[in-house]
Design goal:
Shape: globular
Largest sheet: 5 strands, mixed
Structural class: alpha/beta
Number of strands: 10
Helix content: 25-40%
Length: 279
């Protein structure tokens, strides 16, 4: 078994080739932030060449399906689907937050927090020893993650991973920017010294995706779909503007430059409005 794993949901795209013994045979990562579309296919080719494996030898295409960067998720999933279809291979969807459970960690507990802005995160808290989630992967407020840590009294036994560290723990933000009350902000400050992974290890990587993929079920490439966990900001704004036009405000789009919204965002906005109309 040879699994080619793709990770593009974070700032640095990566590719890993792994065998049935969970031994990584090759690993490629870009040093240029958010350059997934440009570097992904060349990294796949480089990993195969480094491992001495031909495309025909591959048995599965694994992909981190989100949540994370909306653009990154789309690039990774689209590429993985295309490769699986062309090579006639099954795909393996891997939850981005789930993959963090395969990170090397010296503490019993691990938490991944991915920045979703304004005090929001895609987060989880996991017990590595018991192999169970204390907080399942979800779109939550940062304070929800911190409350989970406080309630389980594990602040001295946990390590944080993810770019939420950069966004929240390494900046001096006021309570309002974090969407916190004064008491919640006090809890945040009391936990700011929790152990955090180094920049070299804290972000998403294809190595972790590949390791988890060996334990998961395969699917048809058509069933490999993104897991955004929440609507993109642009899609939400578009849905609001469309709704405003329907409600009698024809000038709702006057402040929007041409070509502001992509096709996917337009479709997402329309679908959001459709769901509201049906509710």
């Amino acid at each position: 078994m040879y699994i080619l794993a793709i990770e593009t949901t974070g700032p640095f795209g990566s590719v890993c080739l792994i065998n049935e013994n969970r031994k990584p045979l090759a690993y490629e990562v870009t040093t240029e932030e958010m350059s997934h579309m440009k570097n992904l296919i060349p990294m796949c080719d480089a990993a195969l060449k480094k491992a001495g494996i031909e495309k025909k030898d591959l048995t599965h295409i694994a992909c981190s399906i989100g949540p994370g960067s909306f653009t990154g998720v789309r690039v990774g999933v689209s590429t993985a689907r295309a490769l699986a279809q062309v090579l006639n291979l099954p795909a393996i969807p891997v939850g981005t937050l789930d993959a963090f459970t395969k990170k090397e960690c010296e503490t019993r507990y691990i938490s991944a927090i991915l920045n979703a802005r304004r005090g929001q995160v895609y987060g989880m808290v996991y017990d590595l020893e018991k192999d169970v989630y204390l907080l399942k992967p979800s779109a939550v407020m940062l304070i929800d993650v911190l409350n989970c840590i406080k309630e389980n009294d594990i602040s001295n036994e946990i390590t944080f991973f993810g770019d939420g560290i950069d966004a929240y723990f390494e900046k001096d933000l006021p309570a309002k920017a974090l969407g916190m009350t004064d008491s919640e902000y006090q809890l945040f400050n009391s936990l700011r010294n929790i152990r955090t992974a180094s920049k070299e290890k804290r972000y998403q990587d294809a190595n972790s995706v590949a390791k988890l993929a060996t334990e998961l079920d395969e699917c048809n490439y058509l069933d490999l779909i993104p897991e955004y966990m929440r609507q993109a900001e642009a899609e939400r704004k578009l849905a609001e503007k469309i709704k405003a036009v329907i409600n009698g405000s024809p000038d709702a789009f006057d402040d929007v430059p041409e070509k502001t919204f992509t096709y996917d965002e337009m479709l997402g906005g329309l679908m959001k409005l459709y769901e509201e109309l049906l509710a």
